[in-house]
C-alpha cells in the first residue's frame, strides 16, 4: 500500500474501499495542517479546518476526477480557509484580513519560527500562499499551477520573485 | 550585476531543492564559485528554506482520532448501502440466470408443444383425409354398383379391397349385387368380394339365400365352396334341396355330394 500513488489509492476509495482514506490521511494531514497554520498562525483554527478538509475528502470522494490528488486536496484546503475568512470577516472579503497581531500573540515557538512567520505575514496573502505551497516537497510546479489555476512556467517565475521578496523581509534586522 | 547573474538567481531555489538538470547545476556551481553576491543569496535562501523545514508543526492527536471517527461513521453510513449492493447484485445475477433458464425452457417447451400439436393436427388431418377418401370411395363404389354397365358394376364391387371394415351399406350393396344382379360376372365378383366377410352372420345368410336362388353353375360352385370353407351348417338344407332339384347341373350335384360330408 505504501508504494501506491495517491491517485491509485483515491481511485480505489472512489470504488468503495473507504479504509484507504486512512492512508491518504496519514500521508497528507500534516502538510494540510501546516499549510493552514502558516497561513493563519492559529493552531486551533488549523486543526478544525484540517479536520474539515478531510471530512470533505470523505464526503465528496466520488467527485474526485483523475488528476493530481494533492492539487485536489489543497484546493479543498484553500477553499476552506477562504470560506472561513469570508464568514468571519464579512466586511473584508480579502484573505489578507489575517491579522499580524493575532499571529504574534499566538506564537510561542522558537525564535526561528516566529521570525519566518512574521516574514510570511508581511507578504500579500496570495504570495504567502504561493510560497508556503511551494515549500512542500510533494507539490511541484505542475500541481501548484493546478491549484492556482495557472501554468507551471508562470508559477515558477512568480515563486522566484516572491522568494526574493520574502528573503529580503526575512533578512531584515528586527 | 550582469544578466548572467540574474539568471543564476532564478535557479537558486531549484538548485537548493535539487531540481536542476546536471548541466544547469554545473552552471550554477561555476557561477557561485566566482560571484560573492550570489553566494550570499544562496546562503540566505538556504536559511529561509531551513526555516520552513524546521517549523513543521505537528497537529494534536485529536485530529487523527477525529478523522478515525469520521471515517468510521462514513463506513457505517455507506456500509449499509455497500453491504446491500453485493447481495442485491448477486440475487439479480441469479435472477437473471433463472430468467434466462426459464426463457430457454419456455422456448424448448413451446417448440415441443408445437411439434406435438403439429403432429396431432397432421394426424387429424390425415384421419379426416382418409375418412374423406373412404367416404368418396364408398360413394363411388355404391354409385358404380348401380351403374348400367356391367363392367362398371364389377369395378364398383372390386372396390371392396379398399375397405378393411366396410359398413352395412356396402355389405347390403354387395349382397344386392350377388342376389339380384342380372350379369353373371357381377354376381361372381360380388360373391368373391363377400367371401372375405363370410364370417359375418349377415353375409352367411346372404350366401345361403343366394345358393337357393342362383342358377349359374360356376357361381353356385363358388358359393358352395365359400360355405364349405366356413363350415356353415345352415347351408346343408339348401344344398340337399339343390341335389333333389331336377334342373341342377350334374356336376353341381357331384360337387355337393363331395363337399357335404366335409361340413359335417
Automatic annotation (TrEMBL), chain B:
Family matches, as Gene3D superfamilies: Anti-sigma factor, zinc-finger domain (1.10.10.1320), Leucine-rich Repeat Variant (1.25.10.10)
Stretches assigned to the Putative zinc-finger domain: 7-39
Protein name: DUF2887 domain-containing protein
Transmembrane stretches, start-end: none
Domain of life: Bacteria
Pfam families: HEAT_2, zf-HC2
Amino acid at each position: 500500500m505504501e508504494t501506491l500513488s495517491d491517485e491509485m489509492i483515491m481511485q480505489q476509495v472512489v470504488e468503495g474501499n473507504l479504509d484507504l482514506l486512512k492512508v491518504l490521511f496519514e500521508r497528507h494531514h500534516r502538510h494540510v495542517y501546516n499549510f493552514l497554520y502558516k497561513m493563519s498562525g492559529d493552531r486551533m483554527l488549523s486543526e478544525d479546518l484540517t479536520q474539515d478538509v478531510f471530512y470533505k475528502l470523505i464526503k465528496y470522494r466520488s467527485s474526485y476526477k483523475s488528476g493530481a490528488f494533492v492539487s485536489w486536496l489543497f484546493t479543498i484546503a484553500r477553499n476552506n480557509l477562504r470560506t472561513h475568512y469570508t464568514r468571519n470577516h464579512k466586511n473584508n472579503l480579502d484573505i489578507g484580513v489575517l491579522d499580524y497581531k493575532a499571529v504574534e500573540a499566538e506564537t510561542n515557538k522558537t525564535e526561528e519560527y516566529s521570525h519566518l512567520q512574521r516574514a510570511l505575514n508581511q507578504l500579500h496573502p496570495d504570495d504567502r500562499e504561493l510560497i508556503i505551497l511551494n515549500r512542500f516537497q510533494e507539490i511541484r510546479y505542475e500541481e501548484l499551477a493546478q491549484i492556482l489555476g495557472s501554468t507551471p512556467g508562470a508559477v515558477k517565475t512568480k515563486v522566484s520573485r516572491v522568494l526574493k521578496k520574502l528573503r529580503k523581509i526575512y533578512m531584515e534586522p528586527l | 550585476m550582469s544578466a548572467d547573474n540574474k539568471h543564476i538567481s532564478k535557479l537558486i531555489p531549484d538548485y537548493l531543492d535539487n531540481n536542476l538538470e546536471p548541466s544547469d547545476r554545473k552552471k550554477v556551481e561555476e557561477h557561485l564559485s566566482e560571484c560573492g553576491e550570489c553566494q550570499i543569496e544562496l546562503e540566505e535562501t538556504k536559511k529561509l528554506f531551513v526555516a520552513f523545514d524546521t517549523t513543521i508543526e505537528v497537529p494534536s492527536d485529536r485530529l487523527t482520532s477525529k478523522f478515525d471517527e469520521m471515517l468510521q461513521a462514513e463506513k457505517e453510513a455507506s456500509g449499509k448501502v455497500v453491504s446491500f449492493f453485493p447481495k442485491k447484485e448477486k440475487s439479480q445475477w441469479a435472477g437473471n440466470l433463472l430468467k434466462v433458464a426459464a426463457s430457454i425452457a419456455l422456448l424448448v417447451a413451446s417448440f415441443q408443444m408445437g411439434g406435438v400439436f403439429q403432429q396431432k393436427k397432421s394426424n387429424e388431418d390425415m384421419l379426416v383425409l382418409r375418412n374423406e377418401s373412404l367416404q368418396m370411395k364408398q360413394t363411388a363404389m355404391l354409385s358404380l354398383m348401380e351403374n348400367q354397365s356391367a363392367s362398371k358394376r364389377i369395378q364398383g364391387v372390386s372396390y371392396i379391397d379398399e375397405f378393411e371394415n366396410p359398413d352395412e351399406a356396402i355389405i347390403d350393396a354387395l349382397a344386392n349385387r350377388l342376389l339380384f344382379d342380372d350379369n353373371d360376372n357381377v354376381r361372381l365378383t360380388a360373391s368373391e368380394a363377400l367371401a372375405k366377410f363370410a364370417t359375418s352372420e349377415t353375409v352367411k345368410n346372404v350366401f345361403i339365400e343366394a345358393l337357393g336362388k342362383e342358377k349359374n353353375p360356376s357361381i353356385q360352385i363358388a358359393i358352395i365352396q365359400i360355405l364349405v370353407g366356413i363350415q356353415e351348417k345352415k347351408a346343408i338344407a339348401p344344398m340337399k334341396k339343390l341335389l333333389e332339384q331336377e334342373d341342377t347341373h350334374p356336376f353341381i350335384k357331384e360337387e355337393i355330394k363331395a363337399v357335404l360330408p366335409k361340413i359335417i
